[in-house]
Amino acid sequence: MGQWAIGNGHWAMGNGHGALLIILSPFPLLKKPFSPLKKCPLPNFSFCSEKLRNVAFHAFAEAGETKEPKVRGSMLSVNVKIGRRPLTLRVAVVGSGPAGSCAAETLAKAGIETYLFERKLDNAKPCGGAIPLCMVSEFDLPPEIIDRRVRKMKMISPSNREVDINLVNEDEYIGMCRREVLDGFLRDRAAKLGANLINATVHKLDIPTNNTDPYTIHYVDHTESGAQGIAKTLKVDLIIGADGANSRIAKEMDAGDYNYAIAFQERIRLPDDKMAYYNDLAEMYVGDDVSTDFYAWVFPKYDHVAVGTGTMQVHKASIKQLQAGIRARAARKLAGGQIIKVEAHPIPEHPRPRRVVGRIALIGDAAGYVTKSSGEGIYFAAKSGRMCAETIVEMSNGGVRIPTEGDLKVYLKRWDKKYGLTYKVLDILQNVFYRSDATREAFVEMCGDMDVQRLTFDSYLYKTVVPANPITQLKITAKTIASLLRGNALAP
Ligand SMILES: Cc1cc2nc3c(=O)[nH]c(=O)nc-3n(C[C@H](O)[C@H](O)[C@H](O)COP(=O)(O)OP(=O)(O)OC[C@H]3O[C@@H](n4cnc5c(N)ncnc54)[C@H](O)[C@@H]3O)c2cc1C
After folding, report:
1. Is a pLDDT exceeding 60 seen at residue 464?
2. Same domain, yes or no: 220 and 314
């Protein structure tokens, strides 16, 4: 739970719209000690823009209360007196992966009443855990979040031709992290900043028929009674669906389906000498034997490697065969390894048809923000969470107005403007280069080119596409065509 315990259902917030504060039951469950003697730093406390807990305090202070209230009625009469409190927007963020926690952090920082729902606080999302360098500084990640700094990549073609890609600048790397560590850090930070973390599974929404009535969230709280939980409800003005690829919120708001891929991954603990080889090296394998649609990988993790592959939903029956393919190709390097975990999860292939409906917005995998070709989603989840929340803060004037569907769609416009081209280019690359073993051979050959490497790494590590000068661009185009032509000859 976060710093104060509204989410446990012991007290529910006023709807905020008429400056009405309703206390449903006794106060003692506030985790922060309630201090009626604390003074508001503002001269006129009824206009104080601090969070609701402070408004509650002001209300008691004005009424001359020195004790915690015992019944709901006493608080109602207090509210009639103050009556001028600006609206405190209530936002529920469902899911605390990178998307949800980064959204909750931004909202809480702005003083918006934020509820962050997470069904499994020790969730270890099935994931390669590779993050771009820019995420470390942009999201203030401490060094201990990064288990390994990968500076070498090996691309391996269908005919087992290997191309080495090395990062030249000493301070550049691809960060490898454990999702349970990264997600835990981001979630705790959001809670420390004031988001109310609720360990609960959200399973249903009551959707209002007008623009101002609250949404009712039905959830099962696991705080005290474990998996079985206790059924509860919470009323909020806005909902952010950050609950991943199988999003319940997307279903409830009728966001429409997306095509998805299925990824399969085995965590393998290697003997020390074998692990040393993968110390700062990641491998990507392409070929019909390892993935008919994408690539297969061996990524170094904390004390083991993640070996996996992905394929489109329509080919999912072949996923185990493809996994056997990557295990066979990397067999020599994985010899003596012990499987410690097997996991599978869907990966969205494109955004959902509707990402904002009413006052509900989707972010991260729930929205469908994984890139084609690379299958990257962690950075885009965190970034979409932050951008969506920033738009809410802006459109609500810092939490004193309820944003409309049109306001929330501003987030979509900004997102599509910033990243639409990136998604398109990676989509085209996937269609061109992952089509056959011949085009995959061409792809690996191209990766050996220094200009291509610099361009690819700049756009991955920094999420900025710096256009190459026209001569370099021409060179790259010519090499691409030549590689595509040669690919047929090289394919097995
Ligand atoms: C095998 C595999 C490998 C991958 N490798 C990489 C990689 O190396 N690099 C990369 O950038 N991306 C990778 N991805 C993609 C990446 O994992 C996702 O894009 C990313 O996790 C999306 O983050 P998110 O916050 O949107 O959703 P998630 O990380 O899925 O988080 C959703 C959260 O919501 C919670 N939740 C779900 N439903 C509910 C509910 N009803 N109530 C309450 N809580 C709920 C879940 O417990 C979870 O904590 C990989 C994906 C897979 C499957």
Report:
1. yes
2. no
Of 301, 322, 348, the residue at which a domain comes to its end is 348
- Same domain? For 188 and 101 the reply is yes
Q: Which residues span the domain enclosing 208?
A: 88-122+181-257+351-412
- Distance of CA 301 to CAs 46, 148, 333, 345, 404, Å? 52, 7, 15, 18, 43
Q: Taking the mean position of all CA atoms in its chain, how far away is CA 94?
A: 11
Mean pLDDT of 177-197: 97
Instruction: Specify the DSSP class assigned to residue 400.
Output: T
With a 6 Å cutoff on the Cβ, whether 182 touches ligand 1 is no
Does residue 129 form part of some domain? no
State mean pLDDT over 356-368.
98
**Are 187 and 284 within one domain?**
no
d(CA 87, CA 104): 19
Strand residue runs (E) in 270-423: 281-287, 291-300, 305-312, 338-348, 356-357, 360-362
- Residues 362, 468, single domain; the answer is no
Q: For residue 427, what pLDDT is reported?
A: 87
- Looking at the CA of residue 95, tell me the nearest atom of ligand 1: 34
Residue with CA nearest ligand 1 atom 35: 95
Tokens of 346: 């869907």
